[in-house]
Amino acid sequence: MCRWLAYSGSPVRLEDVVYKPDHSLIDQSLRARMGVETTNGDGFGMGWYTEDRHVPSIYRDIGPAWSNRNLRELAAAVSSGLFCAHIRASTGTPVQQTNCHPFRYRQWLWMHNGLINGYASVRRDLLLAVDPELFSGIEGTTDSELMFFLALSLGLEEDPPGAVERMVGLVERTARCHRIEYPVQMTIALSNGECLWAFRYSTERQSRSLFHSLDVQCLRDLHPDHELIQQASADARLVVSEPLGDLLEAWQEVPESSYTVVRRGGNEIRTFTPQSA
């Protein structure tokens, strides 16, 4: 599987979140604690928004994140108020740049941890369900990117949560035709540059881990001597595959079959229910 994080708040240098915490995403690329694999070295990527550019920038590569000097240089130079970062552990598709997350379409960024079980059996049927006008945008071979383009085909730009629910419903219906019992395992991060959505769901109801950070002012009161917390802006929010340090009280688990909506100044939790397309 994979590990990922998404940040929303006042602009910070990417390295402050991606590199500096005790159990940062870079540390997780070597020593993940809650993932299926301890090592996530099959590529990485970052996507970030800036005030002067509507379309997000992305940087992706196929090597391990822990040894990439260009990634370190970039993270130290770039500041953003909304960004995503992902480290990949392949579930069988090739290690190539077009298979690294995040995926981008216009102003949208998409990251995924999980898989479609029996993907080889359902891939053709699902590809045929992609809107023909969007099909040429698919560059790689992963189930993750295909899920993104299915959601785009099902109304993502008008109704992001509803489109993801319809996408999962379509995957589950297609998988049943192929007698696949538990097809969907996912945590997903999705953003349009203004809002961040993070989903946690699996057909089996045993989803991979996902957490969001608590209110910064509460954390400041609890940890007045913690430098990173004291420096964080009041509107800062993080959604992560696993906590970035040992302050477990700083994190709250996103419940099973739900999603969180993060906007500047706060977040809320809502129920996630797959729908008929």
From TrEMBL:
InterPro entries linked to this entry: EgtC-like (IPR026869), Gamma-glu_amide_hydrolase (IPR052373), GATase_2_dom (IPR017932), Ntn_hydrolases_N (IPR029055)
Pfam families assigned to the protein according to its UniProt record, in alphabetical order: GATase_4
Domain of life per record: Bacteria
The entry's keywords: Glutamine amidotransferase
Limits of the Glutamine amidotransferase type-2 domain: 2-277
CDD domains: YafJ (cd01908)
Cited PANTHER family: GLUTAMINE AMIDOTRANSFERASE DUG3-RELATED
Identification of the protein by name: Class II glutamine amidotransferase
